[in-house]
Amino acid sequence: MRVLLVEDEATLAEQIAAGLEAAGFVIDRSRDGEEGHFLGDTESYDAVILDLGLPYLDGITVLRRWRGAGRTMPVLILTARDSWHEKVEGLNAGADDYLAKPFVMEELLARMRALIRRAGGHAAAEIACGPVVLDTRSGRVTKDGIVVPLTAQEYRVLSYLMHHLGSMVSRAELTEHIYDQDFDRDSNTIEVFIGRLRRKFGHDLITTVRGRGYRLEAP
Ligand code: CA
């Protein structure tokens, strides 16, 4: 899952990015509203963390512009503590959730996972595809109740497919969502990860849609 983080406080941005990366997310970062707006407008993200007080363009304006242009990715705003005004204004501008500073990393992670799940139509914390179950809280994947160890990239590919259960996902889309902006992307590597996942979970878990992409069939 690929997340855009727009936050101008360097230390806080560093902490958030480290926490998200450790939890398996891929992060693009921006320190100002103008660049952040541009990235959210042109790149594909599974969720956005948006600070409100930003240089060049404030967070509320960034959010209004995205929503006005039809960008629908889930957005969590970071607000000042005890500012009900910021929370209301942010939600009215199209935010899906908010978190007041200072916050605990675990809460941010839980909220991000819930936002991404709900955006994919999954209300429960576990997503199941036959015997394969992804626990979005722990990042663990089991088959028939037994934990299957996965590398970070294997997890990202499987997690993205499971969040889009039953839908065709192109190789380009997968590539966009498992690497950050600066990564030298090569969509051929996706095939390698799909091959490894099939060896771990059985060949029929992931269907190849010839010439187009992949799909996990909803059970
Ligand atoms: Ca700020």
CATH topology of the largest domain: Rossmann fold
Mean pLDDT: 93
- Report the sheet-strand fraction: 15-25%
Q: State the CATH architecture of the largest domain.
A: 3-Layer(aba) Sandwich
Side by side, the strands of the main sheet go 2-1-3-4-5
Q: Please estimate the helix content.
A: 40-55%
Radius of gyration, CA atoms, in whole angstroms: 18 Å
Bound molecules: calcium ion
How do the SSEs run, as a string of H and E?
EHEHEHEHEHEEEEHEHHEE
Distance between the termini: 23 Å
Biggest β-sheet strands, sense, barrel: 5 strands, parallel
- Runs in which pLDDT lies below 50 for 5 or more consecutive residues are none
What count of domains describes the coordinates?
Answer: 2
Label the structural class: alpha/beta
CATH H level, superfamily name of the largest domain: Response regulator
Q: What coarse outline follows from CA principal-axis ratios?
A: globular
- Helix count, DSSP H or I runs of 4 or more residues: 8
Strand tally: 12
